[in-house]
Amino acid sequence: MDTLYLRRRLANALALILSSAATLLGLAFLAWILWATLRQGIAALDLKLFTRITADGEQGGLANAMVGSLIINLIGIAIATPIGVLAGTWLAEYARRTRLGETIRFLNDILLSAPSIVMGLFVYTIIVLPSTALTHGNTSFSGFAGGVALALIALPVIVRTTDEMLRLVPSTLREAALSLGVPQWKLTSQILLRAARSGIVTGVLLALARISGETAPLLFTAFGNNFMTLDPLDKMSSLPQVIYQYANDPGEAMHAMAWAGAFVVTLFVLLLSLASRLLFARKVSHD
Amino acid sequence: MSAIPALVAPEQRATRDAHHDRLFAGLLKACALLVLAALLGAAFATLWGGREAFHTFGWHFLVNPAWDPGNQDYGALVPVIGTLATSFIALLMAVPVSFGIALYLSEVAPRWLRTPVAAAIELLAGVPSIIYGMWGLFIFAPFFAEHIKPWLTNYLGNKPDDGHPSWVAAHVPFVGKLFASDYPFGASILTAGIVLAVMIIPFISSVMREVFQTVPTRLKESAYALGSSTWEVAWDIVLPYTRSAVIGGIFLGLGRALGETMAVTFVLGNAMELSASLLDPGASIASTIANQFSEAVGLQKSALMALAFLLFVVTFFVLLIARLMLRRLASREGR
Q1: Angle between helical axes of A99-112 and A143-168 (0-180°, round to 10)
Q2: What is the DSSP string of A161-215?
Q3: Quick check: A190 contacting B, CB < 8 Å?
Q4: How many other CB atoms are found less than 10 A from the CB of residue B295?
Q5: Spatial contact of A222 and A241, defined as CB atoms under 8 Å apart
Q6: How far is Cα B278 from Cα B82, in angstroms, rounded to an integer?
Q7: What is the pTM assigned to this prediction?
Q8: Whether the predicted pLDDT of A287 surpasses 50
Q9: What separation in angstroms does the CA of B7 have from each of A180, A181, A192, B10, B225?
Q10: Which of A4, A69, A89, A90 to mutate to test the interface with B (most CBs of B within 10 A)?
Q11: In a 3-state reduction of DSSP, which class is residue A123?
Q12: B74 three-class SS
């Protein structure tokens, strides 16, 4: 009896120690990664990062990549937000218990973690190839194509949060409006979406955080450009793509610039997720 | 006389509203169908892009270890094995650690510590994958080459520096080959697996933590009242109750690991050769595409598209299983 008790106590203590150790390990890796990015990034921060372009090489900066990232992300969000909000609304308000609705909700969850590099190849096939053929090679890779690729990644995030947020709106609100004779489109667009607004904005911010660090889908869509461009039909560089390129470069100065870029991207992403957390103090899952 | 227009107007309005309702519902449905179109489109676009490779090589494509642009001979075996090996290593390390973290956060930690620690772990989930890649390339791979790899080759491998196979390699079959390497740098399949593990730990642990919290308190408290220890409650009550969702969370992590590009491309070494050793450089599907697609033409481009199709199909089914398993618990919860 006594040995059994002792053995159970020991097993329990061991499990508790191991689980605490696992948590410490996770936190240690978090600290290691953030510390590395912070240290190397701040050491490489320099005003010329924001004023010079990548064409100047070691003496250059990341200005064109930052502007490009901004434009591509904006295009992505501008495409994904209306489509995502409307699709999420359909799932929550029109198809809550239908088979098609359930199927799309399910597939949306799968799209949420689909490999982003395949999305890049998809956009390459449907936008880059046709535009090359149509313009005889004048427009091939473009910032717009990059934006579409990012929109495909942002879309499921926005669909899911919109769907979830609308389900939180109490049905008394719907019944009250319908009993006053409000048509459903008005109810949905002017009452329900307004009630769920802060949650939907959270979703958009999360989607922005998700896409602003994406690299793989941009490699074959926006491609990269060593010069400053504001034209979305031109090849365009972005911060993650330049980080990828510079990290693969043998030069030490390039590595420093890659770290500075990584620092900027990480800071941006973490601030965004912090903002979305503050805006909507509900736990939002990343899966 | 005046009653007639007053009667007509609301009717017109009702028809107009009904018309708008139909239009609005149609617009919403079209947007929702775009989600479907994105998934199907990605599958068909890669299949169509890879048709030349599938046509040229047939089923042989799947088992051909060659990747030879000189002879226009391409096979998927090396990147497929690389993808599976790195993801498997990542799961092997990430699952126990994630379970530990979820257990700590839901049963062990003092209440005031739970929220900040959980938030910190989720912060790790938000870090872009290219940051993991850079950390892996510049910080972890050199560390691995200097401190971990020599230890592994000396104590587990069959080709250590002093020329004698280690005790483990001499007594346990296969292990020696797994840990033998002449390659002096840190990039390897094992390194990529470790970086991937670090990346998917926050995903798996936050899913596990979430499902652990759905276990009814009554159930746990009954077990505690009967004298169970924390570990016994976790292993015999919480885990059986949430088994399907836990498996779902693991598959979700696997889905991430399979399709991840940036975190592995930097630390995999990109060698298109088959090697039995985990310490040799390799290639995964995603890293091969990222490295070669821009310069590829003709059959090589098609072969890369075919690889992307394989990756998409495999991740689709892994994620399908993940979601089905996660949903099982949700439906038992009546949600």
Answers
A1: 130
A2: HHHHHHHHS-HHHHHHHHHTT--HHHIIIIIIHHHTHHHHHHHHHHHHHHHHT--
A3: no
A4: 9
A5: yes
A6: 10
A7: 0.91
A8: no
A9: 18, 16, 30, 6, 71
A10: A90
A11: helix
A12: strand
Ranges assigned E (strand) in chain B: 67-68, 73-74
Q: Is B113 on the interface with A (CB under 8 A)?
A: no
Reading the block at residue B95, the tokens are 């699952």
Q: Cβ–Cβ of A30/B121 closer than 8 Å?
A: yes
Find how far residue B245's CA is from the centre of its chain. 16
Handedness of CA B154, B159, B162, B164 (dihedral sign): positive
Q: Answer yes or no: do A262 and B130 touch at CB < 8 A.
A: yes
**Residue found by looking up tokens 């939180």 in the block:** A168
Residue with tokens 């676009």: B45
Strand partners, A223: A236
Q: Kindly list the residues from chain B whose CB atom is less than 8 angstroms away from the CB atom of residue A18.
A: 100
Task: Check whether A180 has a pLDDT greater than 50.
Answer: yes
Q: pLDDT, tens digit, for every residue of A38-95?
A: 999 999 888 888 989 988 888 888 999 999 999 999 999 999 999 999 999 999 999 8
Whether residue A200 contacts residue A193, with contact meaning beta carbons closer than 8 Å, is answered with yes
Answer yes or no: do A12 and B229 touch at CB < 8 A: yes
Do residue B21 and residue A183 have CB atoms under 8 angstroms apart?
Answer: yes
CA-CA-CA-CA torsion sign (B235, B238, B241, B242)? negative
Using the Cα atoms of residue B75, residue B81, residue B86 and residue B88 in order, give the sign of their dihedral: positive
Q: A90 burial class (0-12, 13-18, 19+ CB within 10 angstroms)?
A: buried
| A39 at B interface, C-beta within 8 A | no
Contact B85, B282 (CB under 8 A): yes
Structure-block tokens of residue B256:
């991430």
Render the burial of A166-205: b for 16+ CB within 10 Å, e for the rest. Answer: beebeeeebeebeeeebbbbebbeebbbebbeebbbbbbb
Phi-psi domain of B73 (left: phi exceeds 0; alpha: psi -120 through 50; beta: other): beta
Measure B189 CA to nearest chain A CA, in Å.
18
Look at residues A124, A120, A152, A154 and name the one whose alpha carbon lies nearest to residue A241.
A120
Token pair listed for B206: 């936050």
- The ipTM value here is 0.91
| Whole-angstrom distance, CA of residue B119 vs CA of residue A65 | 31
Q: How far apart are CA B147 and CA A107, in angstroms?
A: 44
